[in-house]
Amino acid sequence: PGRVKLAAQLVLAAVVTVVFLTSPLLQVQARSLYLPFFKAPVVTNMGWFTLIFFAVVIVGSSNAVNLTDGLDGLAIGCTVTVALAYAFLSYAAGNFKIAEYLQVPFYPFTGELTVVCAALVGAGLGFLWFNCHPAKVFMGDTGSLAIGGMIGVVAICCKQEFLLAVVGGVFVVEAISVIMQVLSFQLTGRRIFAMSPLHHHFELVGWKENTVIVRFWILSAVFALLGLATLKLR
């Protein structure tokens, strides 16, 4: 049930928040808030608002990936590009010289997340081998929700939460399309898209499934590159 999934996601967010706020090494890192294009934190101490912020990031990321998982290979292909981008971001955040050069927050041990992201890339590619159209295996809610939550936690750890909206642009657009569709139907009785999430809309207007998937992969790669490009615009 949806309520059980949401409750589990909120519990995960609460656990992550408690770990950050109770760890002497992570307290400052947790409470700081960074925005793209700014080299210094815009907020140095979010206090207990940290819990709400982490919940939004983790729950939002988890559900966005879940909504994207509607066509063979679509979600996992986009996951690979996002994980590659965050592998670099994690390594940069954990290396003092690179962090200083790129003017991103430096936090010791964050570089260890590079291994986590690399593992996600490898597992994703292996899964994609069997999940590409026509798919022989499917990740389901168990896989998509877990992957989305994992990406959200990685973004929190390297303090690039807002950049996730750029790097994971395909996930964001898919989630927004669902929100817009629901709000529009409830308020006006009309639908904006032929069907949501957005990938189904393009199927209904005549795109073949493989065309939708590959074009969304391309967009995901472009979003990831745009996100990394912002590192030099600070």
Number of domains: 1
**Biggest sheet, open or closed, and with what strands and sense?**
none
The proportion of strand residues reads: under 5%
Quickly count the helices. Answer: 11
Q: What is the N-to-C order of secondary-structure elements (H for helix, E for strand)? A: HHHHHHHHHHH
Instruction: Give the end-to-end Cα distance, rounded to a whole number of Å.
Output: 43 Å
Helix content: 55-70%
Q: What is the strand tally?
A: 0
Radius of gyration: 18 Å
What coarse outline follows from CA principal-axis ratios? globular
Average pLDDT value? 92
Please state the structural category: mainly alpha
Low-confidence stretches: none
Walk me through this protein's architecture.
This protein has 234 residues and is mainly alpha-helical. Helix content is 70%, strand content 0%. The chain contains eleven helices and no strands. Helix 4 packs parallel to helix 11 (209-229). The model has no long low-confidence stretch (mean pLDDT 92).
